[in-house]
Design goal:
Elements lengths: L1 H19 L4 E6 L5 H11 L5 E5 L4 E6 L1 H14 L5 E12 H6 L6 E4 L1 H13 L3 E12 L4 E17 L5 E20 L5 E12 L5 E5 L2 E5 L4 E15 L7 E17 L1
Helix pairs in contact: 2-3
Length: 267
């Protein structure tokens, strides 16, 4: 028994000696997609007691000084983490349509998720119907977890600024503000392939007394790849719509703005 214990102790002793006697090497690990600074803590936690890790922002690289076996382990872990963020394509279609049309296509609620195949049929109905018209259509691509902005705005003069110099010269310059609609989007690709989308639509307008006003809301929705969310907007106008040819009666029909946002993962 004593001999077995002695042999185990001897094996542990030589293992420690071998680990301490390894020839450390210097290795530069180039970070392809992420940030070397953000991955520094991961690499530093994997180094041996004798190892050292630093990072270089200019080359976006990790600098590792350690045993070759440990450097290989650090490189494998970093490679598994340093992956390219997926790109997301955001398409936005804004229409103006009668309440009856929106009810017929099933988007009379404030927020409705539409599968990819069904939305293709809806776009055809929008093109063919006299009760719906396209206001604007926009598209933007962004990386997962990176915000994007889509906007339809014009610079409007909301006032003036006066600058008086020491020599008495006076310069008047107009003050401009973007007026219109803007949509901030933050898509995040989930592990199951779905897309979490945070939306912040904003409408800037001019009040009667000439001052700008801003209205915005924040909403969140989870979409399958290629699906669309319909978000109802405000009442925009009332128009006259014939009830029937025989009766000759007519009624006032409301029209609303509806936004359709489609999110798709791009390879």
């Amino acid at each position: 028994m004593r001999r077995i214990i002695s042999l185990i102790a001897l094996a542990v002793f030589f293992t420690v000696i071998l680990c301490q006697a390894c020839e450390p090497e210097l290795k530069v690990l180039k970070i392809e997609h992420g940030s070397a600074q953000s991955l520094f803590e991961v690499a530093n936690s994997l180094k041996s007691e004798q190892g050292k890790v630093s990072f270089d922002q200019n080359s976006n690289s990790l600098i590792v000084f350690d045993c070759p076996e440990n450097i290989l382990r650090i490189a494998q872990v970093i490679k598994g983490i340093d992956i390219r963020e997926k790109q997301v394509e955001i398409k936005v279609l804004v229409i103006e349509a009668s309440e009856r049309f929106l009810e017929n296509i099933g988007v009379s609620y404030s927020q409705v998720i539409i599968p990819q195949g069904k939305f293709m049929a809806i776009t055809e109905l929008i093109k063919e119907s006299k009760e719906a018209s396209t206001r604007t259509s926009m598209m933007v691509r962004t990386l997962s977890n990176r915000p994007a902005v889509l906007q339809v705005t014009t610079d409007e003069v909301i006032g003036t600024e006066f600058v008086i110099f020491s020599n008495g010269t006076e310069i008047t310059t107009p003050v401009r503000e973007p007026i219109g609609s803007m949509l901030e989007v933050l898509p995040t690709v989930n592990n199951d392939g779905s897309i979490n989308v945070v939306l912040r639509p904003t409408v800037n307008s001019m009040e009667k007394h000439g001052t700008p006003s801003e209205r915005s809301i924040i909403t969140q929705v989870v979409l399958n790849d290629g699906d669309t969310v319909a978000i109802g907007g405000a009442l925009v106008q009332k128009g006259r719509s014939k009830k029937g040819l025989l009766s000759g009666k007519s009624s006032e029909e409301n029209k609303k703005v509806e936004m359709f946002l489609t999110a798709k993962i791009v390879d």
